[in-house]
Design goal:
Strand order of the largest sheet: 1-7-10-11-2
Distance between the termini: 18 Å
Helix content: 10-25%
Radius of gyration: 19 Å
Strand content: 25-35%
Order of helices and strands: EHEEEEEEEEEHHHE
Shape: globular
Low-confidence stretches: 58-62
Mean pLDDT: 80
Oligomer: single chain
CATH architecture: Roll
Number of strands: 11
CATH topology: Sulfate adenylyltransferase
């Protein structure tokens, strides 16, 4: 088992800690050179965190773009992630040594503190959420299922406060365009390859 840091935004950090997020998503970078007709897989090294885009163009076997190998940001099944989020030392009467910005809404005094760590600077000792990786996949954005979308957390209160529908997959499409700076649907239309990792919170 390898333990690695996972940098979470406020939506992810709160949802992972509260248990309303159980699936993580990131863009595959770089994307497959030829997306059509390809999919991602391990090839022969199923326990490796390197994935390759491949196809079976003539039924003759694996045709991999080996120079386009990508490395999973989540590692492999069995690895552990410690969540980095915006935090700051702030001793409380309860004995808690840190507070976390995701727990406060904009405008609250503690949300506006000037001493917050940048996410990438949060030390391991401040971590409050550990995750075990139980599955890693590569899919196209439009192939994210209803169950995947619900696990990403687009149905709970951590869905950025935006208007939600009764359809998790539609909420995920809206979230995708919002996070990628496109309100006209272009980011979704591009249908990029995505990493999806199913995770389980490690209970203390």
């Amino acid at each position: 088992m390898i333990e690695r840091a996972f940098r979470a935004d406020a939506r992810e950090a709160k949802g992972l800690h509260d248990g309303t997020v159980g699936c993580l998503v990131r863009v595959v970078d770089p994307q497959a050179l030829e997306a059509d007709g390809y999919q991602y897989g391990h090839g022969k090294a199923e326990l490796s965190d390197f994935w390759y885009p491949y196809s079976y163009p003539n039924g003759d076997g694996l045709a991999a773009q080996c120079d386009a190998a990508v490395r999973s940001p989540f590692g492999v099944v069995g690895d552990r992630l410690w969540v980095q989020e915006t935090a700051t030392p702030y001793p409380l009467a309860s004995g808690q040594r840190y507070i976390y910005r995701a727990d406060y809404t904009p405008g609250e005094p503690r949300h506006e503190l000037k001493s917050w760590y940048k996410v990438c600077s949060m030390p391991r000792k401040a971590c409050r959420t550990l995750l075990d990786v139980t599955d890693v996949r590569v899919v196209r954005a439009k192939d994210v299922t209803r169950a995947d979308a619900a696990a990403i957390g687009v149905c709970g209160a951590s869905f950025l406060g935006y208007q939600k529908t009764n359809w998790p997959e539609e909420n995920f499409r809206v979230l995708w365009d919002l996070l990628h700076g496109d309100r006209d649907g272009e980011a979704w239309f591009q249908n990029p390859w995505l990493w999806l990792a199913t995770v389980a919170k490690v209970e203390a």
